[in-house]
Specification:
By secondary structure, this protein is an alpha+beta fold. The chain contains 9 helices and 4 strands.
Length: 199
């Protein structure tokens, strides 16, 4: 039963990540007269019911010591959870946060680093850290208001990480910094990190 759930989540994570990538890469340039503007791809409506149900089962399994031990040893599941953490719908992201909160204490930091940071590959050893995946959610939710004036006219606009880095400028191992972030998820991540520091 457990292996069926893990396999189902893996299949769903692949689908959801593909939808996420196609949304990010779905931006197009529109030319009208002499103006060119960037139009972001329409946010896809990802069917998440089945994935949500599987994550609910994983969450129930994580309520028990034996379940947490089993889940913490499933490196593919942990990789899939971290993909869903960034690419999933808001309710998927909330479920993943709850699961990660429960199983993280069962995973050695060195093992967690190997799983999510691919630290077994020498090329990425110093490029990606454990907190990067978590703080990526916070970074994507931040906006900075920039005020400027030109010829006596004042302007103000909000800038986020998508305005700073184009998708193709980010190295592939920072894929999770692409897209938009939810402030509620960012708050949950900050709370999770604070709780991790108190243990």
């Amino acid at each position: 039963m457990c292996s069926h759930i893990v396999s189902a989540i893996h299949r769903e994570a692949i689908k959801i990540k593909e939808e996420f990538d196609s949304h990010i890469n779905g931006s197009v340039l529109e030319a009208t007269n002499e103006n060119v503007r960037l139009i972001l791809g329409e946010k896809p409506k990802i069917p998440d019911r089945y994935c949500f149900e599987m994550l609910t089962l994983v969450l129930a399994l994580a309520d028990h010591k034996l379940g947490r031990n089993y889940l913490s040893q499933q490196s593919n599941l942990i990789q899939d959870l971290m993909q869903l953490f960034h690419a999933g719908t808001p309710r998927i992201q909330r479920q993943v946060t709850s699961v990660v909160r429960k199983i993280l204490p069962e995973i050695l930091p060195s093992e967690f680093a190997k799983i999510i940071c691919h630290q077994s590959h020498a090329s990425n050893v110093s490029k990606l850290n454990i907190l990067d995946m978590f703080l990526g959610c916070v970074v994507k939710s931040l906006q900075v208001k920039v005020r400027s004036s030109q010829d006596g006219n004042r302007f103000a606009r909000n800038i986020n990480i998508n305005d700073v880095f184009a998708s193709d400028e980010l190295p592939s191992y920072y894929w999770f910094l692409r897209g938009e972030g939810e402030i509620q998820l960012a708050n949950a991540v900050v709370k999770l990190i604070k709780d991790m520091c108190e243990v």
